[in-house]
Amino acid sequence: MKLPFVSRTEHEAVLADRERIRSERDQFAKDRDTQRAVARKATDQYAALNERYTDTAIVNECLTHDLTVAREQLAAHEKGSRKDWRSLYEAERKRADGLQRRLDDAVGLKPQAIQDSSRWQPGYKAPKEDPA
Questions:
Q1: What b/e string do you get for 15-48 counting C-beta neighbours within 10 Å, with b at 16 or more?
Q2: 108: helix, coil or strand?
Q3: Contacts of the segment 34-39: beta carbons below 8 A, 24+ positions apart
Q4: In the chain, what are the helix, strand and coil shares in percent, each to the nearest 5?
Q5: Distance between CA atoms of 108 and 112, rounded to whole angstroms?
Q6: Given this model, what pLDDT does residue 42 score?
Q7: How high is the pLDDT of residue 13?
Q8: Which of 17, 18, 39, 20 minimizes the C-alpha distance to 28?
């Protein structure tokens, strides 16, 4: 045998080594793709959380502004007399009662006696009472 020839065991060792290197390369590619997917997902989740945080911050700022305005109005009203408070309360109560009446009318809760249902339930018969 001349020098460029390789024995079968050496050839099989080279083939096994080549196969090992290929499988390591394939595993590395899978791991890399998995890592990129996880990083992409984490970035998307971070962006979503950041957006929610921004929305929450905006709402919080609006509520803080509304609270400040309400406190200023309350301070201004506290300077007024008790009679002013009472008249405001009565006006709001009347308005709320009127709105409640309109709502009751709209959903069919008019203040009247309960009607006999036999008009819209023709087959209905009242249950007989047991003399027990």
A1: eeeeeeeeeeeeeeeeeeeeeeeeeeeeeeeeee
A2: coil
A3: none
A4: 75, 0, 25
A5: 10
A6: 92
A7: 93
A8: 20
Residue 50 corresponds to which amino acid?
A: N
* Type of residue at 66: D
Q: Which residues contact 66 (CB under 8 A, 6 or more apart)?
A: none
SS3 107: helix
Per-residue pLDDT tens for 56-71?
A: 888 899 899 999 998 8
Measured between alpha carbons, how far is 18 from 24 in angstroms, rounded to an integer? 10
> What pTM, to 2 d.p., does this model score?
0.37
Percent of the chain with pLDDT over 90: 34
Write out pLDDT tens, residues 7-49: 889 999 999 999 999 999 999 999 999 999 999 999 999 998 8
Asked if 32 and 38 touch (Cβ cutoff 8 Å), the reply is: no
How open is the CA angle 18-23-25, to the nearest 5 degrees? 95
